[in-house]
Amino acid sequence: MATDMTQGAPSRLLLAFCWPLLLGNVIQMAYALADMVIVGRLLGEDALAAVGAVNSTLFVVLGFVFGISAGVSVITAQRFGARDFRGVRLSVGTGAWVSAAIAAAVTVACWLCTDPILRLLNTPRDVFALAHDYLAVSFLGTPCMVFFNFQSATLRALGDSRTPLLFLAGASLLNVALDILFVAGFGMGVEGAAWATNAAIFASALTCLLLVTRRLPELRLRRADWRPRPGMAWRQLCVAVPMGLQFSVTGLGSMVLQAAINTFGVAQMAGMTAARNVENVACQLPIALGQAMATYAAQNFGAGRLGRIRAGVRASVLISVAYGVAMTAATLLFGERFVAAFLSAPTEAVLGIGRRMLWIVAPFFVPLGLIFIFRNTLQGIGRSVLPMLAGFVEMAMRMGVALGLLRLLGVEAVYWGDPAAWVGAAALLVAAYWAITRRWPHEREPAPCPCP
After folding, report:
1. pLDDT greater than 60 at residue 344
2. pLDDT at 262 (0 to 100)
3. Which pLDDT value is given to residue 177?
4. Which residues span the domain enclosing 60?
5. 231 falls in which pLDDT band (50, 70, 90)?
6. In total, how many domains does the chain have?
7. Do residues 394 and 247 touch, judged by C-beta distance below 8 A?
8. Residue 429 above 90 pLDDT?
């Protein structure tokens, strides 16, 4: 059901909008976690290391197309906030063409470059073939991801965060069943885990398309609404491309670090992969709050209610900081148990690697949470270039600390790359938000429609 976020208490709206996003993010993580657990337990440490070795690459590619879908939906949310329903339909119709064209180009380019990418990552020979199979099939599933993410982003733009949750839950259950069937039943190895994810996402996206268009009149596009409009497409690309690049730049820094980690052997690869999964779980609430703020800020910006944006940011920051402190304590106390969950018989070396990494990164969960709040707020008001620049700062800090201190600290320098990146990016985003909003009036006229 569509929700108008320009009315009502900001904290109540954000929490109500946030909890389905939080559950959805956890469920979406289940795709990767199911692959990790099933691959690690059924196929062993080499297979787990192979999957972990390419996760940063997939983050770069899928993060880019996810950013495109999210960026396109910013215009949709702004038109909805302005109560311009014709503009909503035009944004959705044009955005579908924009997303499809970019997805096709990215899929072909990445699939053809699978081997060069793995060589650039210094992937060890003993896991190269496994990593190739998993990565190539995952690249072929990029259009399925775009298909689903575009619909989810459009629904969130209209204030509906619950419907995507339902379809994510169905896709997650199907993914686990297909993982077991393809890997254990058909003996397809790591390649089967990737095919299972692709099939589950496509089935969920197709079902969502058939059902949702019947429920929401705002998404019942007429034939004229499907005609690509250059003015609308250009405005969408101006927001979406920097958002996509911001995701990719952040992931590119992780790719460089993954290449450094790969030179330390399979134990380091497996331990760091398990620790990163724990880290990903710990930051899910700030991610959901950030997604909620993107829709909240976009709708209120379109409606001209600027004071409500500042109130929403204050509420989100308080929640994120309290949660970050709690998750830091929980991770330091119980992180090793989660690391052990990813392997059937973890060695002491792998457990030690995961434990050490978590002790370094966990105290910095608060600045990590601030990144999601301020980045998404800026993107929601159409200022996507600044978050992209923060992504470059994040990459530079991560690579500078990790690679610059590699000889001095050894592999632990890579662990310190993430905290340095989070602090640098958070500082820039907070300063950018303050500089933009400090002279805002409480309200202004609704934003005009960017279409001919």
Report:
1. no
2. 67
3. 85
4. 10-437
5. confident
6. 1
7. no
8. yes
Residue 446 lies in a domain: no
Model pLDDT, residue 325: 92
- Give phi and psi for 76, each to the nearest 5: -60, -45
What backbone torsions phi and psi does residue 8 show, to the nearest 5 degrees? 105, 170
189 belongs to a structural domain? yes
Q: Which of 276, 347, 352, 342 lies closest to 47 in space, CA to CA? A: 342
Find where tokens 């989100």 sit: 316
Q: Tell me, yes or no, whether 149 lies in a domain.
A: yes
Rounded Cα distance between 64 and 362, Å, is: 26
Q: Taking the CB of residue 7, how many other CB atoms lie within 10 A of it?
A: 12
Q: Rounded distance, CA 157 to CA 296, Å?
A: 9
Predicted confidence (pLDDT) per residue in 302-334, tens digit: 888 888 999 999 999 999 999 999 988 888 887
Q: What is the pLDDT of residue 108?
A: 92
Q: Which residues contact 196 (CB under 8 A, 6 or more apart)?
A: 35, 175, 178, 179, 181, 182, 183
Distance CA 217, CA 85 (A): 10
Q: Residue 276 CB: number of other CB atoms within 10 A? A: 20
Of 193, 192, 182, give the one whose Cα is nearest residue 34. 193
Structural domain contains residue 414: yes
pLDDT at 22: 81
Predicted model pTM: 0.77
